[in-house]
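User: Show me a protein chain along with its predicted structure.
Assistant: Here is one chain, sequence first, then structure tokens.
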Amino acid sequence: MLRTSQKIRLTNSDGFKQKLLLWAQQFKNVVWLDSNNHKANITFDAILAVDSYTKIKTSDKNAFEKLKKYQLETHDFIFGYLSYDLKNNLEKLNSTNFDGLHFPELYFFQPKKIFIIKQNSLEVKYLKHLSDEITHDIHEISSQKEKENTVTNCNIKPRIKKQAYFKKFDALLEHIQKGNLYEVNFCQEFYSENTHINPVSTYLNLNKISKPPFASFLKFDNHYLLSASPERYLKKNGATVISQPIKGTEKRAVLKTEDELLRKNLEQNPKEISENIMIVDLVRNDFSRFAEKGSVKVDELCKAYRFKQVHQLISTISCNVNVHTHPVDIIKHTFPMGSMTGAPKISAMKIIESIEETKRGLYSGAVGYFTPNNDFDFNVVIRSILYNANNKYISYTVGSAITSKSVAEKEYNECLLKAEAMKKVLLNTK
């Protein structure tokens, strides 16, 4: 698909980013990705895709095959998401838990207009027949005014009460002791009904207090994702594929000395390290299904990174792939990501479905894009607010990894720590 490309110098890229996102709300299909100036293996500062020329939306059993065909036929940039429940396409699994959000399981679109920001440079990529709209659009974007944030009737409730969480934790521990699991990611939903929010302002507030490297704002019709994700699921650049799972969490401290001590303690915590290494092994195993022989390696193991809300242990695993390996097949062999399931993966997914109360949907899925040359980059949908504007249902889900060394109270508190930013934004608290 032919596109017109034009570069424009920006005097205030941060201010322009906010105006760009506000301008985008006139369209039914929007994907916004923001690296928040994190530099590690990221190819842009921010990217916006709007207004579908073509699209694919499905929840059926052939979702990956349809996506593969769509990607091949389009041979262009496509942006969208993969929901966690696409696992049912890949294994003999199901998803029958409560779903208050009703997102399609897979949604991608070929945008008419793409905006890529790198430092103080904006590159626009419009479909050829729309090139005469660039000047008008840039003027409109520059004229945007910030709208007031509104959150009404937000009454956040836990889907799983604390004592029920402890009982479910004990059931998972029993599975681990029996050898059914080594590790499992156990998640719980917090939700609010009959609630109206301004999605853009809510996202901007969430991003402001989190500043993660894989932030995303997604709008498909009346479905919204407002994500402050710190985690990359999978990236392909040429013949190289990398995954960067997060396992291991510690709070931040105000004092620098105390904060550094917490970071060092996390990096040396045997429980957190074992959690991370289990997932690294799972990713290596997934990679071995498509990687060129002998190319799978661990580039970085269990390094503690600082984020505004928490410290996290991150590992980086990479491999090389044959030029003829289709990008959708790479995703099929690794989906869902091990950091959100556990090990062994299939056993963990079966037990997750029986223990959790809510269908995960887009939570623990992935948002990202494919390029015309078969590269891609996807985040992990965590630390995110999901919103169905039609039925005014708001949801955010948090989880933690359960192993034989886990303590119920600590795991529950870790969930609350991860939920802090979303709760603050929705309740307008400081």
